[in-house]
Amino acid sequence: MTQPTDIRRVPAALTLAAHGVPVLPLRAGKGPFGNCRSCARNVCGGRPNMRTPGPCACPYPCHAWAAATTDPHTLNSPQWATAWRTAAAVAYHPGGAGLTVVDLDDAAAIEWARATLPATRTVATTRGEHWIYQGVMQSVNAVRPGVDIKSLMAYARWLGPGTGTTAAIPAVVRALAVKETSPARRAPQAVTVPLRGQGGACPHRTPAYLDRGIAMAVQRITEASSAVHATVYRTFLAVLSTHGRCGCLTDTHAARLFTAAQAKGETVRHCTDAWTNARTALGL
Question: Percent of the chain beyond pLDDT 70?
Answer without folding.
Answer: 81
